[in-house]
């Protein structure tokens, strides 16, 4: 406990710098894989530190390497700490003094805080580099929000560069957990997400004579209801699938039966078996219902991020770090996965590790049901809790290198 207490004390001293960086990034949110302003903010935040910085060809992401100076560091272990940097294409309505200055863009998922905490974790571990018998790599990643930035950085060879990481760790803020708490679970933490499209084709005609047309609109409605029923009947309740029909589009005016209707939605699953069963079900239900009504259904499923799977052994290790750092009462064991998705899943496919959640419930709130969650245009966070995030990054890396967990 005493060994890790120093990290929390030092992180609190670094908090003003983290808050300033977070607010700078928040006010100028950037989307996708190329984030020049955010990347420059990170570089400015690292100025003066003795670290190596690597860049790839396909994104503005960075791998920052800090090698310990303790004897044997060159042959020691390596751990990767990751923070994502991109914002969302949505308006901000928080009323904050440092709210987004770019219309239609907002840091509504906390990536600004992830980046700021990771920069200060570099500073914190840099102070203790003489205690580190190994290397810490910090992954500043763009494009998490649907652009697969982690996969691009992997393809650029940034994760495989020597010394190759032995494990990986990430934190994600969560406004609905109490400020300063750490939450996690072994196994599936977040779902795989796929986008699906069904285009129902009939025969257009006059609204007064539907018998001379083949109306795809009621067919699309029937398919939508049947898909939701299919999920409840064909997938295991303990291996869940969440299907959402988010959009139906067709027609131009009130007295014309359209020729086509397009349906758009998502599928979220926490195992490859449930994913495959649901894929087969979407195709089977859509094509057969369409055929029963003399229509055709063109089904397209685009696979997105895979399931984020936490290594059980590393979760036990990180949980031990968290309880030593903030106390057992501030560790929340999650009973089930969240059905959101994360491209940190690609990193965890390549090495053991885990992602955990950092509670950032806004000050003055005690009921998570009345708090704007991630991806809300009203989402705010408790910046004081970022000190725990800084310390948690540093403590996980320090203990992994100095007291490595069992294989």
Fold and architecture overview:
- The chain has about 400 residues and is α/β, with parallel strands linked by helices.
- It has 2 domains: about 280 residues, Zn peptidases (Aminopeptidase), CATH 3.40.630.10; about 110 residues, Alpha-Beta Plaits.
- The protein has 9 helices and 16 strands.
- It has an 8-stranded mixed sheet with strand order 1-2-4-3-5-16-6-15, with helices on both faces. A 4-stranded antiparallel sheet has the order 10-12-8-13, covered by helices on one side. The protein has a two-stranded antiparallel sheet with strand order 7-14.
- Helix 3 crosses helix 9 and helix 7 crosses helix 9.
- The longest helix is centred in the first third of the chain and has 26 residues.
Q: How do the strands and helices of this protein lay out in sequence?
A:
Layout lengths: L1 H26 L8 H10 L6 E4 L6 E6 L9 E8 L26 H17 L6 E8 L7 H7 L11 E8 L7 E3 L2 E4 L1 E10 L3 E2 L9 H19 L6 E10 L5 E2 L2 E10 L2 H21 L3 E8 L4 E3 L1 H15 L4 E3 L10 H5 L4 E7 L26 H17 L5
Parallel strand pairs: 3-4, 3-5, 5-16, 6-15
Antiparallel strand pairs: 1-2, 2-4, 6-16, 7-14, 8-12, 8-13, 9-11, 10-12
């Amino acid at each position: 406990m005493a060994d890790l207490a120093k990290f929390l004390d030092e992180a609190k001293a670094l908090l003003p710098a983290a808050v300033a960086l977070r607010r700078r990034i928040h006010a100028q949110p950037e989307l996708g894989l190329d984030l020049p302003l955010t990347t420059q903010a990170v570089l400015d935040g690292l100025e003066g530190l003795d670290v190596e910085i690597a860049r790839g060809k396909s994104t503005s992401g960075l791998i920052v390497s800090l090698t310990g100076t303790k004897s044997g560091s060159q042959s020691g272990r390596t751990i990767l700490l990751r923070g994502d940097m991109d914002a969302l294409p949505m308006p901000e309505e928080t009323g904050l003094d440092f709210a987004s200055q770019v219309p239609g863009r907002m840091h509504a998922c906390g990536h600004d805080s992830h980046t700021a905490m990771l920069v200060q974790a570099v500073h914190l571990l840099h102070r203790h580099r003489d205690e580190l018998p190994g290397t810490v790599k910090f992954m500043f990643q763009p494009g998490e929000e649907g652009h697969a930035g982690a996969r691009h950085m992997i393809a650029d060879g940034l994760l495989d560069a020597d010394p190759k990481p032995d494990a990986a760790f990430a934190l994600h803020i969560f406004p609905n957990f109490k400020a300063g708490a750490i939450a996690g679970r072994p196994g599936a933490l977040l779902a795989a997400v796929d986008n699906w499209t069904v285009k129902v084709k009939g025969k257009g005609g006059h609204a007064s004579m539907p018998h001379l047309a083949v109306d795809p609109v009621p067919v699309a409605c029937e398919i939508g209801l049947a898909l939701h029923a299919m999920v409840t009947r064909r997938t295991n309740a303990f291996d869940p699938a969440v299907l959402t029909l988010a959009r139906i589009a067709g027609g131009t005016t009130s007295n014309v039966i359209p020729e086509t209707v397009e349906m758009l939605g998502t599928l979220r699953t926490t195992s490859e078996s449930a994913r495959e069963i649901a894929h087969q079900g979407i195709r089977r239900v859509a094509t057969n219902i369409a055929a029963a009504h003399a229509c055709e259904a063109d089904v397209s499923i685009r696979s997105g991020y895979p399931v984020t799977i936490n290594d059980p052994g590393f979760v036990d290790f990180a949980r031990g770090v968290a309880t030593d750092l903030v106390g057992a009462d501030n560790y929340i064991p999650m009973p089930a996965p969240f059905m959101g998705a994360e491209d940190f899943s690609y990193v965890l496919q390549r090495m053991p590790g885990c992602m955990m959640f950092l509670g950032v419930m806004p000050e003055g709130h005690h009921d998570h049901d009345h708090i704007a969650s991630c991806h809300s245009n009203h989402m705010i966070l408790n910046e004081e809790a970022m000190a725990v995030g800084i310390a948690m990054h540093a403590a996980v890396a320090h203990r992994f290198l100095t007291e490595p967990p069992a294989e």
